[in-house]
Amino acid sequence: METEETEETAETGRPVPAVLREARRQDVPEIVALLADDAIGAGREGPADDAYYAAFELIAADQRNQLLVAEAGGRIVGTLQLTMIPGLSRHGMLRAQIEGVRVASGQRGQGLGRRMIEHAIEVARGQGCGLVQLTSDKRRPDAVRFYESLGFTASHEGLKLPLG
Amino acid sequence: METEETEETAETGRPVPAVLREARRQDVPEIVALLADDAIGAGREGPADDAYYAAFELIAADQRNQLLVAEAGGRIVGTLQLTMIPGLSRHGMLRAQIEGVRVASGQRGQGLGRRMIEHAIEVARGQGCGLVQLTSDKRRPDAVRFYESLGFTASHEGLKLPLG
């Protein structure tokens, strides 16, 4: 699961490249902090209580869900979740869905998000998926352009219904 | 799983209300025909070969996926798939996703699609989901308005990346 990549030493002055790996239970508090480190997410997250750990256990036990993290210098600096969804349409095509993408504010603009999405796409391809999909909040037009630069097409409306 | 509803008799001249239930293996050919009975889906579906049956078995064996059908007069006249996705965000909120919504062309405009989506929302609520989401092709503006009339908000872009 971990990507192979030569690590830059701290002496070069460049950031140490992050290692992408599956999340572990002890990562939960840092992942929750990342989810909250966002203008839209800030009001609806934290602290890392039992509800987050219970959700982590559901994901860890489900072969169709993977929670990925990027770790650099002993810190969690990025996260995303990948869900494989079987379906009848398009000749029984398996699709992959990306949710919960976050990169630490201090690490943005350095290509980490791109590496994470490209990694997720390769995992999806390796599992035989014919499509990768995600939704992106219209209040983040930069994010939509970022995904388009990775080859995604904003062909669909993403509709949400909160349940009271 | 089946909804309770008084059936109208054929003598009234009104269509017999459809029963909503989980799909069975023998429904696969009719579901595939429904997926193909659509301007966008026509070019990419059928016939109901092993790939569709393999996908059906994956769905049937997965507690987080439900394939629903609407049956009326011994025919499958509607289908949708519901996927429950665990996740850390929003305090470990479970979300439900709807995919592959189809209503037979002869049954459109009679409220069946609305019943199917409302049923899916109730299933999601019963499983403790905090959100129901779906994407809708921008080439079907009527569909987007239909989901908005059910309370959904088109707050997100739905981005897709086909894998070659």
Would you give an account of this structure?
2 copies of one chain form a homodimer. Chain A is α+β, with helices and mostly antiparallel strands and 164 residues long. Chain A contains 5 helices and 6 strands, in the order βααββαβαβαβ. The first copy, chain A, has a 5-stranded mixed sheet, sandwiched between helices. The relative contact order of chain A is 0.14. The model of chain A is unreliable at 4-10 (pLDDT under 50). Chains A and B meet through α1, α2, β3, α3 and β4 of A and α1, α2, β3, α3 and β4 of B. β6 (153-162) of chain A pairs antiparallel with β6 (153-162) of chain B.
Q: Find the biggest chain interface.
A: A-B, 66 and 66 residues
Helix and strand content put the structural class of chain A at alpha+beta
Could you give the order of the helices and strands of chain A?
EHHEEHEHEHE
Would you tell me the overall average pLDDT of chain A?
A: 91
Discrete helix count of chain A: 5
Which band does the percent of strand residues of chain A land in?
25-35%
Q: Rg of chain A from C-alpha positions?
A: 16 Å
Q: Overall 3D geometry of chain A? A: globular
Tell me about the biggest sheet of chain A?
5 strands, mixed
Distance between the termini of chain A: 38 Å
Low-pLDDT regions of chain A = 4-10
Overall helicity of chain A: 25-40%
Multimerization state: homodimer
Strand order of the largest sheet of chain A: 1-2-3-4-5
How many strands appear in the DSSP assignment of chain A? 6
